[in-house]
## 1
Amino acid sequence: MSIEVGAIVEGKVTGLTNFGAFISLPGNVTGMVHISEVSNTYVKEIREYLSEGQEVKVKVLSVSPDGKISLSIKQAGPAQQAEKPAPARPARAPRPSRPNTWQGQQPSAQPTTFEDMMAKFKQVSDDKISDLRRSNDSRYSQSASRRGGRK
């Protein structure tokens, strides 16, 4: 069987490297799937997606004059992509719902509009800036009095 560009064939993973996987194809030929052609997602570790001996469907991307065959798993079809197994996650209880509070203030009984929230934010912000200025002014006046007077 000759390998034609664009053909989708079945093969078996015979070797894994940092840069891709070698696939044994019908007709006793070997092609390579580059790591970037394994999945549509970023593949850092190919061994998380493929294992030796695994049967895969691949698309023939190119056949060079010297006989090197370039293959793709992700282009063989969406159902054929090598999927990283989802890590097992322990079941968690849903978060309890909390009232919409800001800075520890109690929620109002009526729904607030964006403008109301912005006005409240501005008021709290102005109060904090005033407190900070008063604090800095008192520090400055204390250090000036130690030096012998205020400038």
Note: The chain has two domains: 8-78, 109-151.
## 2
Amino acid sequence: MSPERYKEKKPSLVTAPVAALLSFFVPGLGQIMARRVQRGLLMLGAMVTIIGLFIWRVNLLGRRVDGFWPTLSKALERNTFFISFTILAIVALWVWIVYDAVKQTRKGKQYGNAIFALILLVFFGIGWQISEIDIVKLTSDANEAWLPLSKILWPWDAAVTRSTESLEAGAEVLVDSEGPAPPKPERVEGEPYVWVEPREGELSRLDDDNNIIPGTEITVYGEGFAPETRTEIWWSDAIGNEFQPRYQGRYVSTVTDEEGNFEMTMNMPYRLVPPSARGQQIHKVIGRQVSEVGPLLPSDPLVLTIELIIETIFMGMMATLFGIVFSVPVSFLAARNLMSSSWITLLIYYITRTILNIVRAIEPLIWALIAVVWVGLGPFAGIVALTIHSIAALGKLYSESIESINPGPIEAIQATGATKLQTIMFAVVPQMIPPFVSFTIYRWDINVRMSTVIGMVGGGGIGFLLVQYIRLLEYKSAGIAVWFIALTVAILDYVSAEIRQRFV
């Protein structure tokens, strides 16, 4: 083994039994008295943190119970494995710390960091429970994620559309009100026909826990439709607003038989009835077949995605340009090698670096929320947010590049009697062009990708459209947006590599 792996240590201040006793009462104290201060402090901090996290999780699992032991008992009942594992791990770690304290009092070279592996294992176990990782649910419910994922991975059938013709018929139903049920609709020769049984009932509603209480079950019958064709079921409320009910995340529909007839059962959907509604509430159940005619045309999701991905690219570009304009002068103020000539310039340096650190610490998403309040919804808010963060990020990168430049040209220029400005122009700037170009391209790539995120809070760009599609469960439309984001990032990465190869 390499001799550099071990370090000679100073003689311990206490004997082995005393060190063990000290670490028994205060974990790590024996190591500190054995002159392994850093090791002892790490063990003390780890034990205090682990015990604190354990007590916190026990209180959460055993809430609404008074007393420590009843709380621990309830927590053990709710999560037996985690509580048992953590208790055993704390005891084992405590014993190991006591044993380690004895080892650290011995003369000569000391080593042995396996105890820190146990500390990491305990933190991993606590983190597993805090993060609520559920491997069983991850595998057993994988099928639930496949349907939206498959639509996102291959959304292109939603990228085109055709003009449509519809064939429909409907029947009235009485909901949540008293009075005679509407009569069956009259048949019209040669036209589709729909009727419902029963023709009255109650809509689905929410209980106190916001769980759906199913409405009255009805049977919908249809005749005279196109045979073996998908037929959508739509619902029209008392004021004529139409919507397509969902069941288990899917729109309610059926397929007609060979004669163009269908029969299906469904529950009356959830629909808010305004408090001002008076009298009978007559709703309508509609069977609708939609057929496509004419040539293929780009769909609305495709057109919107293309428009907003262009907006996103220019948001990133404009934010990067504005960031360069403001960050370049700031970077010279934040470079220590240029600002250490006097206490005034050094003070300016510290103030500038502090401001850059604060601004950079605030995520662009937070700046976007502030910008939306400041300038309103839209791409301008996104540009403002990205520009602010870009100034801080580029200012730091540029200044660190300035600090790492070769001092030789600076000394040579200064020896000729050049001014401060001349020194910067002829000795600093030529050395800064390659890293400036590299960092600028990198920041543009970041800004384009970040534009998709800040759009989710109203900062414009394709992110706003993407989050709307996801909220509406329009996964194919969301998939189109995701594909365009991925293609845009890939193209920008290629362009960035070409530019970097030419200038860096």
Note: The longest strand covers residues 282-298.
## 3
Amino acid sequence: MPSLRTILDERVREADVRLVERLENNRLRCFSCGHCCPIPEGQAGVCKVRFNRGGKLYVPWGYTAGTQCDPVEKKPFFHAYPGALAYSFGMLGCDLHCSYCQNWVTSQALRDPHAVSPPLQALPKSLVQDALDQGAKILVSTYNEPLITSEWAVAVFKEAKAAGLITGFVSNGNGTPQVLEFLRPWLDLYKVDLKSFDDRHYHELGGRLGPILDSIRRIHAMGLWLEVVTLLIPGFNDSDDELRRLTEFLAGISPDIPWHVTAFHGDYKMTDPRDTTPEDLLRAAEIGRQSGLRYIYAGNLPGMVDEWEDTRCPNCNETLIKRYGYVIKDYRLTPEGRCPRCASAIPGRWSAHFEGQIASHPFLPRSRSVLFTIR
């Protein structure tokens, strides 16, 4: 049985020229993430999956670590085609090493010997066809950090666009101007995990705050639909001061950026902090409101966070979309995406008509997948 490293090393292609720069001594600068690694001959970048072989940068290609159909609210996108089905796919590896990662089996597959996730052989067309067969409207790259596999994502998204699908990234946001411009023509939705507003905390996770903040600004300026998530971890990123600075930063870009503050529970290597309580989420949401954000969502504790699961009109406070977890209980936006009471435009990507909710939770495929495990 070949090792995972051997399997992945055989499923690569040369990096796109826009994401690589030649340096002295046969080193290559990679621009797929904010580390901008100068990679020596025979070595890999921080992500472990982009490597220099013979003076050429090779990147992942031709597989997925898994697929799943979810309600788009699970990503979470609350202002993008509510009720639609999102087909998720991903690869292996990450440019960070968060000790609480919920997707550590895929993201840490080449760092942690306990993270074993056999890849499935795939072609862009097969992934898109699988998504269409499941009834998906949106195709999302997630599970690992999609920025480090951007060439593969673009190849899949080109097929998806041709088939009429919406495309999205679920990402830590540790990007570069080069990779965001590379993605821009093929990407519609972008969710960023803003994990902290303290550079020291980001160093603990293996990154820096600066590139994430720069990417959030750029993603918004590019016109992609942006939503931001912060996993609230007691004792790590939940101080009033840090939350105020984080939300004031987002509101300074646009008060219309939806901010999801979600509940932590012990996972992977971080099991010491207590779980986030509803009171913690309500406190964070109120700080976000005081900072000027208009669309704040408290997640992961359905029915325990009052109105913070719902989308409300910031002008007249009318409830426009009522939710319980991922379940849409009422939808009242007009076909033009406006409040039916005061006609205020609600920022987002809305369908002309609410088509109901295909599923309110992840579900098993309607048909057998065409993908198979690589051995």
Note: The first strand starts at residue 12 and ends at 14.
## 4
Amino acid sequence: MGKCILGIDGGGTKTHACIVDLDGNILATAANGGANWERIGVEAVQKNLTEIIERVCAKASIAKADIVDSTFALAGFDWEEDKQILNPIVNSLDLDGRCQLINDSFAALFAGIPQGIGCVSIAGTGGKSAGRTASKTVQTMGMELGEGGGAGQLVDTALDLIARAHHGIVEKTQLYKQIPQSVGFDNPADFFAAVARGRVALDESLAPLIFKLADEGDCVAIEVVTKVASQHALDIQGIIKQLDFAGTPVELIRAGGLHTAANVLFDRVFEKTLKASSPGVIMRVLDVSPVFGSILHAAHHHFKEVSPEFISNLTSAAKKVEI
């Protein structure tokens, strides 16, 4: 088999893999569980990556020795010191070719902008804002350190506000009733006790309910969606400022479930907030899997210059592939 390039996109709940030949033709794709070491631990990440690489290589009928370059775009790779945790995992995979580690947000950036110059806003299970110029790369630091948190922040904010409603601080709307009911509680007091004592853990699956209630005019749900959308827009404002993109046209890729849900309120608040300071920003919602951005990142590393044919072959096929 000829030489090929491997791309990995590992998020909080899913990992995607793709192998292409050196002309950008897709040979195989695969998917399995998450690869964020902060959520599932180092051993689980190593297991999932080992399994998915074996599977995608088998589907492509190639050996690991045929892989000449690869990029691992992993959630949870936020700091330079994280290489001490993740490099041993990558080294254990026995890939003879060169391997790069990047945060998974940059896979989405390259998937939407093949040259990798611009900004990306991730609002999925979690959140991340990032950007690149030809010489500089920046990204936000984490939900606990001033970053928008995607669906996780949406649910946490909703819980905070319905707790305030229970205290009589804000109005008791349908959000106050329906969040407890969604996890089996008709009595909100019993629900809050279960949350406090760790018997119930709310997760990102509640995001569609919050969006639905906001669409129906629930004032507290509207406040939740507005706050989270605004935070993600402000994060991108900061990225644009750090990269000196202010005042110039800049491309922005939007990715993740909150950006792709087509929620009118979330989209309107995000765009209005961002355009207020960066009217020249050009926004697009990512319409292919971010794993193809991992391939493009690896291709930029492997080739002195990625050919238009490689980009065209990959991007045209990517729109037809479901992983």
Note: The chain has a mean pLDDT of 95.
